[in-house]
Write a structure and sequence with these properties.
heterodimer, A: mainly alpha, Sodium/glucose cotransporter, 23 helices, 73% helix, B: mainly alpha
């Protein structure tokens, strides 16, 4: 990022503390006790969940029995891994309130779309995974490509996140990286192997509440230390970082002076439409939580219930980032200070939280590290077992076989993740590139699905080639950008703006290739498309209603409308 | 289906499922954390370290108290609206159907 907010020493004590090296935390036995209790409860939940695992459906989709409030919180929590929290706080310190775009345009509208429009197709067709929807709509070839892409990327992402976690834990607690990797991987391994998705979901909900219990006091103390919100605004206004308080200023065409370096159209289409709809509606790690809901009504409400905490999370993540920019901006911007933007939350914890609350905050961070990895592992084992093993390797076995395979695949997945983490430790650049590359997988998938849902003429070959072309196109753009950066003449203002344009190019490629190839090839007979294409057959979303589902405040349309209104309202103070 | 029509086996199932309701686990965790943080705050009340860090807020007392309240609210919620017995029994009866679904062939 091109600018560096100047630091303000708000009090002598703060200035002295900020100067202490790194982000090492001063934990006492009280803090460790809370961490220990948490680990104990996690394993306990594993054993409780295990008692209810009687079939592969129980293991992979919690027997489709979860109430909406649990799946809704797990839906948002599966995305609230520690890398997300630390990354978004870093954005808060670097680009300020513009980070709200990731929540208000980059998440909530897509969650509403999933609940209102796409979930009826997913849940009514009784598919057990997102790739299986690909199979039902388009057949085997695109299904195989999609399943492999998902399985491989997910297990590697788990490893990359594991490594990211090890760095932070080493800096905060002084554990060596390999100890941090092995301990967290072992806990994830145990509780997922025992209880499958139910374990993952229960722990996600628990992690959600604990991380909030840690971040709310941090935000309150932080705001107190900068003399409230008005004090924070004054502090930022006095430096050249007043732009941190705005979201849409400097996003006009030809005036792309905002820190993202993209105009409003690229933000709305690239981030708001392609990237976020791709992530939230087709990433099985997320959607799986909704599939485990007990009926159609609960499945549709899953992302809608998740949208409400998603609206409020920026206030306990982005605002600490801003506080960091105001108080220790110099430190964060200085590459030799030993504190990076990603460490702004741990640094504020070190400066502001006393023993006691500190233990809650550390536990919350550790919990979200593990929950993030568990979310990847629990969706990986499902896709591998049902979409690859059962479909292409060992068909027609009794259900016990697939349950057993699921458990073993979990073990293998965690081991590959650990291996990836150790490789990542030796080759960090390659890992960063891979992470970016994997983020290209969702956008084209969304393009293929939306075409396939709206257009019954879309053929299997059209889907396959559109999907592949939609992965290749942004890869080429990405490489071109990296080359142009190396040559000192970047073709996009920032790496973030590159991903926005890359996503739009990917989506456009999918539309063109998908339409052209479909027109040249034979479509599936309409009789096989019932309930898979808009307007072909009818989906009755009220068929499996239970008592209470018809209450007015459980109406998906109402929840969705209120969530969208919330997005607009939360932008208003920060235009 | 009212709870009176359950067999004793089903009643035991309902009881054991409700015993480990997630809300009870969350409630217990928050009550324990609330007590630990609250007591820490109580013991160290007025300590310069805490007040210097927080700029004068007794954050441990506040956080501990809030977590205690949240924990109790989880228990109250669980008490006021337990998982319906029919949901528990139904999902138990579904095991055979689920096994079939796990073996599903879609092509």
């Amino acid at each position: 990022m091109a600018f560096a907010p100047a630091a303000l020493a708000l009090s002598p004590a703060g200035a002295i503390r900020a100067a202490t090296q790194g982000i090492r935390l001063d934990l006492t036995w009280v803090d460790y006790l809370m961490l220990l209790i948490y680990f104990g409860v996690v394993i306990g939940i594993g054993f409780i969940a295990r008692k209810r695992v009687k079939s592969s459906m129980d293991f992979f989709l919690s027997g489709r029995s979860m109430p909406a409030w649990i799946t809704g919180l797990a839906f948002v929590s599966a995305n609230l891994g520690a890398t997300e929290i630390l990354g978004m706080a870093a954005n808060g310190a670097q680009i300020g309130m513009a980070t709200l775009h990731y929540y208000l345009i980059g998440a909530v509208p897509a969650m509403v779309f999933l609940g209102l429009v796409m979930m009826p197709f997913y849940y009514a067709s009784k598919v057990r995974s997102v790739p299986e929807f690909m199979l039902r709509r388009f057949g085997k070839a695109p299904h195989l490509v999609n399943s492999l892409a998902f399985a491989v990327s997910n297990v590697l992402i788990a490893g990359i996140n594991l490594f990211a976690m090890a760095i932070v834990i080493e800096a905060m607690l002084g554990w060596s990286q390999w100890l941090a990797i092995l301990v967290s991987a072992a806990f994830v391994l145990v509780y997922i192997t025992l209880g499958g998705l139910s374990s993952a979901i229960y722990n996600e909900v628990m992690q959600f509440f604990v991380i909030i219990a840690g971040l709310v006091p941090l935000t309150i103390v932080g705001l107190n230390r900068v003399h409230g919100w008005s004090g924070l605004v004054d502090a930022l206004n006095k430096t050249e970082s007043a732009e941190l308080l705005h979201t849409w200023v400097g996003t006009g065409f030809g005036d792309e002076s905002n820190p993202i370096g993209a105009n409003w159209l690229a933000i709305v289409l690239g981030l708001g439409f392609v990237l976020s709809f791709g992530y939230w509606t087709t990433n099985f790690t997320e959607v799986q939580r909704a599939f485990s809901a007990k009926n159609m009504s609960a499945a549709r409400r899953t992302p809608l219930i998740g949208a409400f905490p998603k609206l409020l999370i920026p206030f306990i993540v982005v605002i600490p980032g801003l506080i960091g920019a105001a108080t220790i901006g110099n430190l964060l911007a200085d590459p030799d200070s030993g504190v990076t933007y990603n460490e702004v939350i741990p640094k504020l914890m070190q400066m502001y939280l006393p023993t006691g609350v500190l233990g809650i905050a550390v536990t919350g961070l550790m919990a979200s590290f593990m929950a993030g990895m568990a979310a990847n592992v629990s969706s990986f084992n499902t896709v591998f077992t049902w979409d690859i093993w059962q479909r292409y390797i060992k068909k027609d076995m009794p259900d016990e076989h697939y349950l057993k395979v699921g458990r073993w695949v979990t073990v293998v997945g965690v081991l590959i993740g650990v291996g990836t983490a150790f490789i990542a430790a030796g080759a960090q650049n390659i890992m960063t590139y891979m992470q970016t590359l994997f983020s290209f997988f969702n956008a084209p998938l969304f393009g293929v699905f939306i075409l396939g849902l709206l257009w019954k003429r879309m053929s299997s070959a059209g889907a396959l080639w559109a999907y592949i072309a939609g992965i290749i196109a942004p890869t080429v753009v990405f490489i071109a950008y990296q080359v142009s950066v190396a040559n000192g003449d970047p073709i996009f203002a920032t790496a973030t703006s590159e991903t926005l344009y890359g996503a739009m190019i990917s989506f456009g490629t999918v539309l063109v290739v998908g339409v052209v190839i479909s027109l040249l090839t034979k479509a599936k007979p309409v009789g096989e498309l019932k309930g898979l294409v808009y307007g072909v057959g009818k989906i009755d979303v009220t068929q499996d209603h239970v008592a209470g589902d018809t209450k007015w405040y459980r109406s998906p349309a109402l929840l969705g409308t209120v969530a969208l209104a919330g997005c607009v309202a939360l932008y208003l103070p920060f235009l | 289906m009212s709870e009176k029509n359950l067999t004793s086996e089903q009643e035991a199932l309902v009881k054991s499922t409700r015993r480990f309701d997630l809300r009870r686990i969350l409630g217990a965790l928050f009550v324990v954390y609330g007590l630990i943080v609250g007591i820490t705050g109580f013991v160290t009340v007025g300590s310069t370290d805490e007040l210097e860090r927080t700029g004068g807020i007794a954050i441990n007392l506040w956080t501990g108290g809030a977590m205690l309240v949240v924990g109790i609210l989880f228990f109250v919620w669980d008490r006021l609206s337990p998982v319906p017995a029919e949901d528990i029994v139904k999902s138990d009866e579904q095991v055979e159907a689920e096994r079939a679904e796990g073996e599903a062939k879609v092509d």
